[in-house]
C-alpha cells in the first residue's frame, strides 16, 4: 500500500513537472514573439524616421531621390534573415543620406535635418535594445530546449533552436578612423 502511494506521488510529480516544463516553453515562445514584434516596431519607426529625413533631403537634392527608392518597406512575417537584410538596406540608405548631407552644406544646418538626425540616433538605440531583448529571449529558449530533462519535453513538442538576430559581417570588423 505504501509503495502504491509512493508510486502515485511520483507519477503526479512527473506529470506536474512535465506540464510545468511545457508551459515554460510556451511562455518563452511568447516572449520571443513579443521581442520579434519589438524589432518590427523599431524597424518601422526607423523606416518612418528615415523616410521623413529623406523628404527633407529630397527638397535639397531632388535629382538624387532614386537612391532612396530602394529602401525596404517592412512587412510583418519576415524571417530573422529577411529582417537582417532589411536592416542592411536601411543602413545603406542612412549612409547615402549622410553623403548627400555632405554635398549640401545648407542641408546640414537645416533645423529639421538636425532634429531628424537626432531622432535617427534615438531610433537606432531603440532598435539595438529590441535586438538585445530578442536575442536574450532566444538564448533563454535555446538553453531551455538543450538542457536535460527539459529537453525531453522540448523534443516531444518538436521545439527547435531559434535564430539569433546577427550583425552583418562588415559590422564585426574593427572600425578604422582616419583623422
Write a structural description.
By secondary structure, the chain is an all-alpha fold. The chain contains five helices and no strands. It starts with a helix and ends in a 23-residue tail after the last helix. The model is unreliable at 63-75 (pLDDT under 50).
What is the element layout, followed by pairings?
Elements: H1 2-60, H2 80-103, H3 105-108, H4 111-146, H5 150-156
Helix pairs in contact: 1-2, 1-4
Brief summary of the model shown:
The protein has helices at 2-60, 80-103, 105-108, 111-146, 150-156. Mean pLDDT is 77; it is low at 63-75.
| Low-confidence blocks of residues | 63-75
State mean pLDDT (0 to 100 scale): 77
Largest sheet: none
- Helix-strand pattern, N to C? HHHHH
Which features does this protein show?
single chain, 179 residues, mainly alpha, rod-shaped
Amino acid at each position: 500500500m505504501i509503495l502504491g502511494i509512493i508510486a502515485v506521488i511520483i507519477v503526479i510529480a512527473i506529470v506536474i513537472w512535465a506540464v510545468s516544463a511545457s508551459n515554460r516553453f510556451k511562455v518563452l515562445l511568447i516572449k520571443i514573439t513579443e521581442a520579434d514584434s519589438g524589432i518590427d516596431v523599431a524597424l518601422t519607426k526607423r523606416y518612418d524616421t528615415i523616410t521623413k529625413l529623406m523628404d527633407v533631403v529630397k527638397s535639397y537634392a531632388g535629382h538624387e531621390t532614386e537612391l532612396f527608392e530602394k529602401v525596404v518597406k517592412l512587412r510583418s512575417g519576415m524571417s530573422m534573415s529577411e529582417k537582417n537584410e532589411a536592416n542592411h538596406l536601411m543602413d545603406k540608405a542612412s549612409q547615402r543620406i549622410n553623403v548627400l548631407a555632405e554635398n549640401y552644406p545648407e542641408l546640414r544646418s537645416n533645423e529639421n535635418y538636425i532634429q531628424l538626425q537626432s531622432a535617427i540616433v534615438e531610433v537606432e538605440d531603440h532598435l539595438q535594445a529590441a535586438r538585445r531583448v530578442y536575442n536574450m529571449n532566444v538564448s533563454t529558449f535555446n538553453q531551455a530546449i538543450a538542457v536535460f530533462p527539459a529537453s525531453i519535453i522540448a523534443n516531444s513538442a518538436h521545439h527547435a533552436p531559434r535564430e539569433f538576430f546577427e550583425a552583418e559581417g562588415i559590422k564585426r570588423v574593427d572600425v578604422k578612423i582616419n583623422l
